[in-house]
Write a structure and sequence with these properties.
The chain is about 0% helix and about 40% strand. The chain is mainly β and about 60 residues long. The chain starts with 7 loop residues before the first strand and ends with a strand. It comes from Amycolatopsis rhabdoformis. This is DUF1918 domain-containing protein.
């Protein structure tokens, strides 16, 4: 997985009925665009994210 600051990451719901979440990548801490990422979700909270197979990067 490769991302840059400003890209969007989409986390798919893991259970039936769970909503997808989108977050903006604020910081890339891994080498050459690899995880972990510091992200800001739509509700304003920030987190350190190690994306799993349920995540997609959308390059802007």
């Amino acid at each position: 997985m490769y991302a840059t600051v400003g890209d969007e990451i989409q986390v798919h719901g893991r259970t039936v009925g769970a909503a997808e979440q989108r977050a903006e990548i604020l910081e890339v801490r891994g080498p050459d665009g690899s995880p972990p990422y510091v992200v800001r979700f739509a509700d304003g909270h920030e987190a350190l994210l190690y994306p799993g197979p349920d995540c997609e990067i959308h390059n802007e």
